[in-house]
Amino acid sequence: MTEVLVLTISGQDQPGVTAGITSVLSDLPLVIRQLEQIVLQGHLVLGLALGHSTGNAEEAFQDAIAGATDFANSRGMQVNSRLVAEDDLNAWRERLLVTVLGSPLVPSSVAAITATVAAAGGNIDRIRQVASYPVTAIEFEVGGMDKHELRDQLTLVARANSIDIAVQEASLDRRGIHLIVMDVDSTFIQDEVIDLLAARAGVEEQVANITARAMNGEIDFEESLRERVRMLAGLDETAIQGVLEDITLTPGAATLCRTLNRLGYQVALVSGGFIDVIKPLAERMGVVNVRANKLEIKDGKLTGGLTGPIIDRAAKAQALRDFAELYNIPLSRTIAIGDGANDLDMLDTAALGIAFNAKPFVRDAAHASVNTPYLDTILYVLGITREQVERADAASGIPISAPAITLN
Hints:
- The protein has helices at residues 17-25, 57-74, 86-90, 107-119, 147-161, 184-188, 193-201, 204-215, 221-230, 238-246, 253-262, 275-284, 313-326, 344-349, 360-365, 378-381, 386-395; strands spanning 3-12, 30-40, 43-52, 78-85, 95-102, 123-131, 136-143, 164-169, 179-182, 248-249, 266-274, 289-298, 301-307, 334-338, 352-356, 368-370, 405-406.
- By secondary structure, the chain is of the alpha/beta class.
- A 7-stranded mixed sheet has the order 13-12-11-9-14-15-16, with helices on both faces. It has a 4-stranded antiparallel sheet with strand order 2-3-1-4.
- Helix 12 (275-284) links the parallel strand 11 and strand 12 (289-298).
């Protein structure tokens, strides 16, 4: 059985550690199989996996241990050495990324996550901090577990600890261009557009009651939509512009769109609301992909009817597939975000469906849930750090995002 020497050097970070260790090993018949390093709060951990190229492997490994130990001692550092089977080093394991969001994130929550992974026979290979505010976001790279099994188990951990957890495959898909499809009402914005229109028509309470029942899945969406729109008959079309100016973006929505656009990702807004309001809103956010219902307007007044196909639960999922096909993006690189019953098919169709501040039954059905008030925390699930976002904004002269933006 061929063996590989694994050396771990740790201690206070200082210049020249990697250069020094590799120089010590340079005259030995060794090849580097793996090399990784991390510095955390001034403490360095450097790991090397070494195979032998010619001659006596045992002698080469002993010389490597002795040389590394002498160098480490001269720097006040420690060395750990062990032999592992080459087959174990090369063994492929499905790798998953577990992103944890907490506000706050406490030790007991991390203990519950790591204990769950260990009990199921998985191993945490790497831990990376993604953000420290407005939430704490940590990314765990886990090997040796099935994605669905881990997702199911960590869903229970998330509920018990009031944290958010997303589980994804650590595959090439994570690095490619993604399609992100978002619901609008109560997701991208803090309002329900039809409720704002109803307020201007004097039927706010009646419409709001129907809206709530529809979002909870208690009544058919299309039926409820047509019933609510009929109540708007006679409303002057100028009310649409007024509603547009009254809308409040969800905190982080502008940052999310701005960052995704910089990365070249495709962003779409798909809504059971009205394109009359959503399209100009999307244009302000740099979003060109929009699908929503169309209010019928005649002689400057809303007729109480709709034109064109209804964007319901099934149509939202189809919109995701259509936009993915349009941009030649595989479904394995799609993310859907929503909060209501009308979003369930879309959340299920995407590779990662995220329930954002959603109703309980939507959280239960989605692949992951995010329950912070900040929409840009979705970036952390994509592995984009808060520091990267802020540096990009600073380079562009954009101030750090305000909590919420009213478009007036």
